[in-house]
User: Fold this.
Amino acid sequence: MVAKSRLHVPKTPARPGDAPDFGYLKLSPAGKVARPDVGSAATEIRYLSEELVRVLDEEHRAVGPWHPHLDASELQVALRHMLLTRVFDDRMQRIQRSGKISFYMRSLGEEAVSVATAMALKPSDMLFPSYRNQGIYVVRGRPILDLMCQLLSNTRDMCKGRQLPVMYHWRDGNIFSISGNLATQFPQAVGWAMAAAIKGQDDIAVSWIGEGSSAEADFHHALLFASVYKAPVILCVVNNQWAISTFQGHAGGERQTFAARGPGYGVAGIRVDGNDFLAVHAVTQWAAERARTGRGPTLIEHVTYRAAAHSTSDDPARYRPKDDYQGFPLGDPVERLKNHLIGLGEWSEERHKSLTAELEEHVVKSWKEAVSYGTLTEPPRLDPGLMFEDVFKETPPHLRRQAAEMRAEIEGK
Amino acid sequence: MAQMNMIQALNSAMDIKLGQDPSVVVLGEDVGYFGGVFRVTDGLQRKYGESRVMDTPIAEGGIIAAAIGMAVNGLRPVAEIQFADYIYPGFDQIVSELARIRYRSAGDFTAPVTVRTPCGGGIRGGQTHSQSPEAFFAHVAGLKVVMPSNPYDAKGLLIAAIEDDDPVIYFEPKRIYNGPFDGNPNKPAVPWSTHPKGAVPDGHFTVPIGKAEITRAGSDLTVVTYGTMVHVADAAARSLGLDAEIVDVRTMVPLDTDTICNSVARTGRCVVVHEATRFAGFGAELSATIQENCFWNLMAPILRVAGWDTPYPHAFEWEYFPGEARVAKALKAVMEAS
Assistant:
């Protein structure tokens, strides 16, 4: 028999009816991965892209060289941010089901990725998020009321009714507009960072994409330009295992880690336990210091799990085991930080319960206020004339004519 | 006033803006040390340094994306796409991102990027160095689209584009970089120094985006055109001894409907001419707009002259190119109708 070429189709480890199977995930014990000097050359620290940086061990203790030694008060704030993100997500999901908002995307199970990254940065660092990074808004202090108004496309919508729910932006908070097209923000973040270097700014840029969208050419452009110009940028691949129904093997995860794409470009790559707040914080700090001190970009792969559906238009029971998440070996980021704090004697189940109740009340109260500014279907409503504004800085004649036509159409003339 | 060809005029525009405004940067393939394959950025890196006039990887999508990010961080990038035929890898970043950043962020973020790109045929470039893709971009809400036909406009429009707070796609008809071209490749090349629009002020000036220009006044009929075809149309009208009015569109978006339609309303006859393929080309928009506004003034159907609806062929360039004969035939037909 002569060997023949056969099309290889990546295997998905578990589909509905199967037992969860995460045997493919290469894990490193907590505390075991060395922390190199921030000035190390990308090619000398390849191991970081193949191992898994973890700080919290099985007993929820912080161990090893990446332990960031944060104050308990800071960890309590982090827990609050993650919990608020989760409570907010949960409430918006239920509200979408009731028909008040058209669409929603939860970040359930991925809260540490956004919250820990944002907390490890300066407020003036520029963020180019994807659509599952709501935690960065919570960290930077944007009231959830404002996020709700965007979800409702109401009279206080920051996007003036032009964007799908979740596609927020916040100029004063240094958070760029979410596109809704995938991966486009990745090379834009690099361009922003290049400009920062040209201008001699001390700020860095940070961007996130999913492992699925790392397949886009934009991912290559981002890494290439970041490498060529040594841009002060942190590029995060959020490997939550699933691109809607497609397992990460189809994005190239079967052959090597996503972090390992970095060293191929001469960019430092780090693979981190994305559900370990302390580990994410530590690697972000390391990468931020590297970027800020002229040592160039870092690619961080956050190994996590998309515990919820892709969006409210998705039903994961059709493509993965119902109990898949229960088998995920890296657990739940909120539970892990909570248990760590309890172990330190800085938290308790009671405090957790009362904080959850407080945040739920805050979310409910904010929602009541948000709907008072209108919903997609109930007044008050944004003026439809707004659709013609901001196409250009100054509205050109053809758009002024069309705006008048639309007005006449509405008024039945 | 100096005598400049289009290359010098474009170079002068960038030189002035780089000198005046520290936020202006130039980036693209071969634009730095070498000064661009058409020499349009010649000398700029020497004068302004490697971090303001940047050679980039061969990645149009990356060039546009990086320019967007730079613009969001307060720079005014001028990105060169070496040939308009190469712009498609950057199409998504232009259409889905650059065009809509102001809109989707309700004006909170803007990306004042100028994308310069040489377009059009007549240089034996075959199907990958001859395209005129302006209609793709004119179709996208949020982009301004410009194409000059002479050195004076080239400089004034490029300075206006760089100063504009909205993204501008700036097409440079490369056949007329060095001199006006009447469509006959067998005639000796004519330099811009023989043309009144080859006289260009040394310093800062702008030609407003959104304004067409009547380059030749006349009363028999109106030819609405832009880029290289302004000169071909002029030659065709002269050969027929027609008193044609030629409107150089100059800006496709926003379109100067008033100048175009006032002219057609006066002459009652109109031919629309461009180099790009005909079907769903920008000429279709021009014809429809003119028909809607001037129907009762028209004495003949509006005719379109364009490239054939084929890819741009290498060996049959001059059978493909809408030269003087094809334009003259349409002018005659419009004059003879009714």
